[in-house]
Amino acid sequence: MDVLSRLERLPLGRPHYRLLFLLGLGWALDAMDVGLISFTLPALSREFGLSPVQAGLLGSAGLLGMLLGASLGGRLADRSGRKAVVGYSLFLAGFGSLLTALAPGLGWVYLFRFLTGLGLGAELPVAASLMGEFSPRAHRGRMVVLLEAFWAVGWLLAALVGYLLVPGLGWRAAFLVGALPALYAAYLRLSLPESPRWLLAQGRLKEAEDVVAAWEKAFPHPLPPASPVPSPRAYPYAALFRPPLLRRTLFLSLAWFALNAGYYGAFIWLPSLLVAQGYTLVRSLEYVLLITLAQVPGYLAAAFLVERLGRRPVLVAFLAFSALAACLLSRASSPGEVLLFGSLLSFFNLGAWGAIYAYTPELFPTALRGSGAGLVAAVGRVGGIVAPYATGALLPALGPGGVLALHGGLLLLAGLFAFGVGVETRGRPLEEG
Question: How many domains does the chain have?
């Protein structure tokens, strides 16, 4: 019996949940670091006297690093393995956050946010690929969405750090907490297994057999009968830009671009937009903390639905409802409406993130999974880089409501592009891509 057939026949069990927790904790720490810029932006703006454009550049600096990190991390994951990239990128992200806390001036803050983003961008698509490559076919989408659900945990931690520390201790204390991923990375490097699919693609059959054998020991015998699984094939990087992968690469890139632009443009600025509407800093942070709580049921709903309805329809529907919620939030005129429409935006938008992280790695074959997922994520980061800067530039002309409506339009575009991918991957063998 071949190695992949043995891996695929394993039922969902303790090793899968352990891997989910190991990757998820790193994912949450990453999300906390991304979220910290949102919750410290008003304090940073006050201390350095930032204009809206300069404040937007602070958000964009980290996302520029994520762009390069996603592209480089994906290529490295296909060459050097998933495990190494996840561990080293987490260390880089935490180290960058520590340096941000110690930055002697504004220019250094920009530089260290870029360095932090470099690590974050490399880690996220590779961790999603690793989770998918170990998960049983019937549960693969759900497990990747549950991994993405740790983003909500991290964002909630960022909101709590911002609410509890920033008003009294300042923004530097928040970024000191953000250095935790560097410490966790050392443990993670010792604990993560390497992907047997990647090992087989590299011709390292004995190592792949050892990983699968170790997992088999955690399950009671006899195990379910195995079904044949296609072996990984070699593909050149250029195959991403030729049929049949070209359409997937193009439309996924556009969907990632629009989703990143709509998400980061709205959520990085949300506390500041509420302040601009007349709320106090503390009250705006309270509202955003409550809005963030809606991310958790959004992820759980997406995790359930991607295995019932499929990846693409769930992604498209959640993006459409995200766009509607953003437009409603743009017209909110009372605290109750801000909380209601903000929570709906949080629910559907983060559920869409879970669906796209489940969908993306399944669209590429094993030999190109890291490269393909990293490439489209990198294109997406371009949208994330432009959006915070553009939000700051457009804020004086459009006002808080206008920029929120604009981001709603971007989320609708993301749904249209996701629909254009034209492929459903639920229930298909992962090697087919």
Answer: 1
